[in-house]
Structures are given as C-alpha cells and as structure tokens.
C-alpha cells in the first residue's frame, strides 16, 4: 500500500470521524509546510549564516537566535493568507498578530513557539516547533482576550521535532499520530498511529542544577528516584535532560518517562519557567491524548484559565502513575 501522507490522513479522518473541517485541514497542512521550511532553514545551519544571536530580545526578555526570528516569520507568512485564521500568537511576539485586512479571516486562533529549545541550535541538538489551535469565540474580536481559553478548548495541538529525522506529532482530540518527513517525497508520512505512553517508567527528566531551589515535594520525589533500588522506590531510575522541551517530550511519547519543570525559588516570581499557552497546553493535550497526565503540581494543566498570553506555569507531565505520584506529594 502506498504511504499514508498527512494530507491523505486528514482527508480520511474527516471522512471517518468528521473531526476535521476543510479550514482546520488547511491550517494543519499549512503549519506542516511551514515546519518543512523551518527544517530546511535549520538544516543549512552554518552554511547560510543563520546560526547565532539575532542581537535582539523577545517579549520574555530572552536573547533571540536568528533562527527564532526566521522560524517566526515563516509561520506568520505561511498562515496569514489562507483565510483559516482569525489571528496568531507567538512566544516571539508581545501581542497577537492580526490577519492583514487584505486577506479573509477564519474561525481559528493559532499559537506557537516557533523554535523551542533554540539555545541548543548552535550546538546542533534537536529543537522543535510547538503549536496549539483554538476557536475564536463567536462575536469576539481576535485580540489577546480571545486567546485566553483553558487548554481543554484546544481543537488541535502538535509539535515538529527537528532531529535525525523531522517528525510531526499531532492530536485532534482523537489520539496521537506521528508523521515522518520523507525528504525525497517532500511529504510527512504516517509512521506511528494512536501512540500510547506506558503508565509506568524508570526515566525522569529535570534540570538537576536547580535542586537547591526546588519546593519540598519535588525534592522528596527526586530524592526517592535517586535513592534507586536501595530506596523507597525499590528500583533504579535513569535521567535525561535535553533542555529542548520538544525533544524531552518526544522521548516520553516514544517510550514513557516523566518531565518536570516545577516551580522553584528562582522562577516562583514569574509563576514558573515554561509558557502555558504555547508550550504547556499543547504538550499537555498531546500527552493526555496518549494516555499520560500533565499537571502544574497541584491541578490539571488543561484546566488552567489563563490570565495572560505569556503566562508561565510549572509543568509535570508524562507516564500517568509517576505524574500522579509526584502531584500527590504536592497535595499531601
Ligand atoms: P533550562 C527552552 O528554552 C525551554 O523553554 C524548554 O524547551 C526547555 O525544556 C527549558 O526551556 C530548558 O530550561 O533552564 O534547563 O535551560
């Protein structure tokens, strides 16, 4: 049988389950095409002078890499003419990006972190694009307020991983599917269907250099993992930390694990490190659709009602039983 491309998958999903209207199908295909362009720009690296700093800071006060700016531009230009969007929002922009008046507007709001983990880009470590899709509330202007919806309102979420292969991981609220970019075909091809995360794991991901800043429940949880088979957990654990959320989350989607970027005394004033709207919410949607769990240490991430577009949040996500244990320690 010929490979199932992303386009064929979306058309067949629409035929079978009526979950994807033509505008949402167009949105996903346009975002996927933009991710191919970003993969191509990244792949050229030092050959075309796209590495290094852009010499500017983003709204988060973080130094921007040239590829942060390039990736953001690629996504804006790809999505503004199609007529499927009411507006866009990005980690790289303080305010939502309105659809220019010369183009028709649609019902969807697209949010993205155009190049997550970009601090790794200059050292050739996997990075990615994270995106989330909401509906613009009827009768509401597509300004910041329209975006401030809990993650449960997402109609679609996904990420691209730019690594040894370029992958697109997608959920439409009906399971998680993985597509691999066939560079010869120039198409994303379905390579894993209905992915499920193991409920248990022996692998955790946390930036251990922050240990002295952690709250007591996190310290207890991690200390028990580090105690290994001689400790209360009764077996050894392994640690991974790529410092690209997309890469760490994809490892969990692929083989299980738990990822923690918890509240700590360094980030408490800001509410956490990771951004709710275009990092935590899309990843939480994907993880839950694959059978995992995602909390902020005390409650479900997808239930959080956002107060601001760039709101930060603590994140604990991955294999169900470990996330439930780590969260229970916060509530005990
Ligand atoms: P740290 C990348 O900047 C990012 O937003 C996530 O992709 C990643 O998980 C985290 O920050 C890494 O943070 O403090 O370990 O550099």
Tag the structure with descriptive keywords:
332 residues; alpha+beta; Fructose-1,6-Bisphosphatase, Chain A, domain 1; D-Maltodextrin-Binding Protein, domain 2; 2 domains; 8-stranded mixed sheet; 5-stranded mixed sheet; binds 6-O-phosphono-alpha-D-fructofuranose
Task: List the SSEs and their pairings.
Elements lengths: L5 H12 L4 H23 L8 E5 L5 E3 H14 L5 E6 L6 E2 L9 E9 L10 E9 L8 H4 L8 E7 L3 E6 L4 E7 L4 E6 L10 E3 L10 H12 L10 E2 L5 H11 L2 E4 L12 E2 H14 L3 E3 L16 E2 L1 E4 L1 H12 L1
Parallel strand pairs: 3-5, 11-12, 11-13
Antiparallel strand pairs: 1-2, 3-4, 5-6, 6-7, 7-8, 8-9, 9-10, 13-17, 14-16, 15-17
Q: Would you give an account of this structure?
A:
The protein is α+β, with helices and mostly antiparallel strands and 332 residues long. The chain contains eight helices and 17 strands. The strands form four sheets. An eight-stranded mixed beta sheet has the order 4-3-5-6-7-8-9-10, with helices on both faces. The chain folds into two domains: 6-192, Fructose-1,6-Bisphosphatase, subunit A, domain 1 (Fructose-1,6-Bisphosphatase, Chain A, domain 1), CATH 3.30.540; 203-331, D-Maltodextrin-Binding Protein, domain 2 (3-Layer(aba) Sandwich), CATH 3.40.190. Residues 116-117, 119, 207, 243-245, 261, 273-274 line the site of 6-O-phosphono-alpha-D-fructofuranose (P6P).
Quick overview of this protein structure:
With 332 residues, the chain is of the alpha+beta class. Helices cover 31% and strands 24% of the residues.
The CATH superfamily of the largest domain is identified as Fructose-1,6-Bisphosphatase, subunit A, domain 1
Radius of gyration: 19 Å
Number of helices: 8
Q: What is the helical fraction, as a range of percent?
A: 25-40%
Q: The biggest beta sheet, please?
A: 8 strands, mixed
SS elements, strand count: 17
CATH class category label of the largest domain = Alpha Beta
What fold name goes in the CATH topology slot of the largest domain? Fructose-1,6-Bisphosphatase, Chain A, domain 1
Q: So, CATH architecture of the largest domain? A: 2-Layer Sandwich
Globally, the shape reads globular
Order of helices and strands: HHEEHEEEEHEEEEEHEHEEHEEEH
- Unreliable stretches (pLDDT < 50, length at least 5) are none
Class derived from helix and strand content: alpha+beta
The percent range for strand residues is 15-25%
Bound molecules: 6-O-phosphono-alpha-D-fructofuranose
**Sheet with the most strands: spatial strand order:** 4-3-5-6-7-8-9-10
Q: Total domains, how many?
A: 2
First-last Cα distance = 53 Å
**Mean pLDDT score:** 96
């Amino acid at each position: 049988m010929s490979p199932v491309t992303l386009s064929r998958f979306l058309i067949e999903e629409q035929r079978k389950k009526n979950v994807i209207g033509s505008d949402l199908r167009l949105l996903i295909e346009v975002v996927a095409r933009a991710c191919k362009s970003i993969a191509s720009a990244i792949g050229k690296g030092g050959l075309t002078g796209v590495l290094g700093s852009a010499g500017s800071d983003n709204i988060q006060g973080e130094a921007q890499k040239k590829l942060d700016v390039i990736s953001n531009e690629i996504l804006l230009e790809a999505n503004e003419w199609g007529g499927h969007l009411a507006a866009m929002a990005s980690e790289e922009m303080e305010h939502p990006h309105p659809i220019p008046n010369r183009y028709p507007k649609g019902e969807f709001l697209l949010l993205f972190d155009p190049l997550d983990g970009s601090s790794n880009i200059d050292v050739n470590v996997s990075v990615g694009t994270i995106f989330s899709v909401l509906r613009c509330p009827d009768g509401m202007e597509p300004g910041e307020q329209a975006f401030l919806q809990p993650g449960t309102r997402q109609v679609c979420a996904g990420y691209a991983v730019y690594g040894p292969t370029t992958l697109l991981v997608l959920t439409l609220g009906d399971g998680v599917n993985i597509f691999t970019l066939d560079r010869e075909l120039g198409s994303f091809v379905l390579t894993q269907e209905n992915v499920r995360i193991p409920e248990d794991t022996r692998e955790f991901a946390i930036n251990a250099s922050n240990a002295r800043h952690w709250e007591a429940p996190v310290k207890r949880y991690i200390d028990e993992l580090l105690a290994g088979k001689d400790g209360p957990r009764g077996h050894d654990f392994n640690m991974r930390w790529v410092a690209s959320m997309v890469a760490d989350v994809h490892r969990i989607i692929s083989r299980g694990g738990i990822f923690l970027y918890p509240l700590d005394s360094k980030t408490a004033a800001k509410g956490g490190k990771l951004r709710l709207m275009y990092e935590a919410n899309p990843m939480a949607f994907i993880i839950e659709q694959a059978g995992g769990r995602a909390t902020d240490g005390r409650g479900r991430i997808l239930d959080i009602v956002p107060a601001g577009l760039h709101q930060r949040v603590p994140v604990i996500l991955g294999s169900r039983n470990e996330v439930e244990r780590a969260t229970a320690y916060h509530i005990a």
